[in-house]
Amino acid sequence: MRKQKTTKTGKGDQTKALILETALEMFRERGYDETTMRAVAQKAGVSLGNAYYYFRSKEYLIQAFYQRLHDTHLAVVLPLLEHEKTLKARLLTVMRTKIDTMKPYHQFAGVLFKTAAHPESPLNPFADESDPVRQASIQLFAKVLEGAKVRIPQDLRTELPYLLWVYHMGIVLFWIHDSSPKHRRTYRLINHTVDLLDKLIHLASNPFMRPLRKQALRLVVELRDAAETIDDEEQETA
Amino acid sequence: MRKQKTTKTGKGDQTKALILETALEMFRERGYDETTMRAVAQKAGVSLGNAYYYFRSKEYLIQAFYQRLHDTHLAVVLPLLEHEKTLKARLLTVMRTKIDTMKPYHQFAGVLFKTAAHPESPLNPFADESDPVRQASIQLFAKVLEGAKVRIPQDLRTELPYLLWVYHMGIVLFWIHDSSPKHRRTYRLINHTVDLLDKLIHLASNPFMRPLRKQALRLVVELRDAAETIDDEEQETA
DNA sequence: GCCCATAGTTGAACGTGTTCAAATTCAGCT
DNA sequence: AGCTGAATTTGAACACGTTCAACTATGGGC
Question: Is A231 touching B (CB cutoff 8 A)?
Answer without folding.
Answer: yes
